[in-house]
Inverse folding.
């Protein structure tokens, strides 16, 4: 019996890039903490991703959407920096913050693709409406492109 040729492997065990989605919700911060622990134990890069929503209707009405979402991103970065400084002596992890534009699902897919993610971590949805139309986490799992961890 002939052996099948092995497929290309990156030559490492475990993930090297872990993408985590943050949006300021408590579940997203829990997801970031969980992903940070994974990244530390695996010596992986933690890519923290905020997806800025695109709201053309708000922009058409004159609402300063870009400024608001940019301020949210800046606030998230500052909050993450403060949290990491508090635990710097016991929690050493390489991390980067990235901002993408679009709806959360598409933004995280783009981020995971561009950053060559080995794993994606997201917080469980806190919205009751997602039971009807599907949460970002469920859509990421159904995409079947990366291991996805959903943190409650």
């Amino acid at each position: 019996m002939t052996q099948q040729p092995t497929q290309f492997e990156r030559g490492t065990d475990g993930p090297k890039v872990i993408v985590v989605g943050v949006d300021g919700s408590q579940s997203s911060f829990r997801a970031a903490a969980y992903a940070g622990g994974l990244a530390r134990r695996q010596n992986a890069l933690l890519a923290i991703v905020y997806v800025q929503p695109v709201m053309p209707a708000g922009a058409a009405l004159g609402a300063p959407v870009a400024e608001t979402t940019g301020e949210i991103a800046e606030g998230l970065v500052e909050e993450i920096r403060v949290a990491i400084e508090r635990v710097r002596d016991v929690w050493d992890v390489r991390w980067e913050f990235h901002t993408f534009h679009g709806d959360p699902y598409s933004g995280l897919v783009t981020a995971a693709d561009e950053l060559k993610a080995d794993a994606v971590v997201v917080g469980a949805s806190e919205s009751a409406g997602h039971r009807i139309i599907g949460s970002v986490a469920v859509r990421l799992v159904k995409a079947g492109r990366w291991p996805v961890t959903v943190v409650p």
User: Anything to note?
Assistant: Residues 65-86 form the longest helix (22 residues).
